[in-house]
Prior knowledge:
Largest sheet: none
Shape: globular
Radius of gyration: 25 Å
Number of strands: 0
Order of helices and strands: HHHHHHHHHHH
Amino acid sequence: MNEDFTNWQEWLVPRIEVEAEAVLRELKRTALEKLSYEHAARRAFEANLFKRWGRALNLLEVAMYVALEAGQMYNEEHRPTAAKENDCQFEVLTRLHARACALASEIYTLLLGGHATGAMARWRALHEVTVVALFIRRHGNATAERYLLHEIVESKRGKDDYEACYVRLGYDPLDMQLTEELESEYRALLHRFGREFGSQYGWAAEVSGVARPTFGGIEQAVGLDHMRAHYRMSSHGIHANPKGIMWNIGLLKGDRVLLAGPSNAGLADPGDCTLISLYQCTVALLTLRPTEDALVSLKVLDRIAKEGGEAFHAIHHEQLSEEGLQEND
């Protein structure tokens, strides 16, 4: 190594440490004042956002309430019978619906804060839950059982990942007995259902007629492949691809800023998609053991979802009009 460079490092490193310590002390001293200003600015921003998007966001919140209440009542009414009958389909669909409600709540919170990209990314998860729910609803109890048992496959994959990195992380090894039990359960499932059961969507292999099913294939099987463009768009907020850094749903057409925080734009697609997916997932659950009350809830939710979607897109077009922009500009 060059001697001058070594001497330069020896001189600079201690100086950086001293200056960083001084900056940190000053930051801690003034942090409350700075954060108070930031919090006030955030509250003002969120109030302005809600002033524009409030009527659509309110409808989304109402839809979330209807879906959650309907799911809770349905679960309380039918769980005793479903438990006696070992109804795996009921178990899977109630759990997927609960997760869908939680995801909708996350999306709503992100929308309130102006994080359209994050909301769209969480919708991707909601869409996946909805697709799986509709597939399980269509293919019955045997497929639902395979889906539940596939947790062992996921646990096996997690175990393998952990064993590959726990030493570097400084963690303890897994309990040997638990590891052996997991491996034994995994081998037993492959023996029962075939080696294809060990793939990511192996629980769907038999009814799909495909050795290694994909999410895209499952999506197509339930007729939701028309959401593929939205699904790909949502992926830009998750993956480190070049599209994700060059395009942002939270920017209006023509904006050239680097968006590093919330935005008052771009809420229409994640809001509308969330309403649609939440309704579809609720349909998958409530039609399993349909009652008059359940069907009434679905009709109400359907109307709210449509009205909410229209409101989101109307507000989006109002915003474009104010800026003198067209949808395809």
